[in-house]
Amino acid sequence: KPESVSGFLNAMDGPLGSEQRILILTANDISYIPDAVLRPGRIDRRWHIGMPEDYAIEACLRSFGIDGDGPSILAEARMAKWTMAELQSHLWARTDGGR
Prior knowledge:
Elements: H1 2-13, H2 35-38, H3 54-63, H4 70-80, H5 84-94
């Protein structure tokens, strides 16, 4: 809706905005964000966070205390192209947290 984009832009840098702040936006698909929001001066930095590398998956497995099943979970994560959030959700369900 145009009125919601307008309100969002006003909150970012219009009369409702404030100075000396850091605003962090996240998106699963940047193509849905209007160009007016992404223009330089509003969004100064962009980072693409891709799929986790093996070392990050292995560190996550260690933090969840996964030892014996680690290689099979790593292979499954690679094949399914899990994001880190998906991996953590899967591990959470396998451990005591998923009860």
